[in-house]
Amino acid sequence: MAGQLLIALTLTILIELGVLWLLMERRRKVLALSVVINVLTNVPLNLVVMHVGYSTMTVLIGELIVFIVEALWYLIIIRDIRKALIYSLLCNAVSFLIGLLGQTVCTYLLTQNIN
Question: Are 95 and 15 in contact (CB under 8 A)?
Answer without folding.
Answer: yes
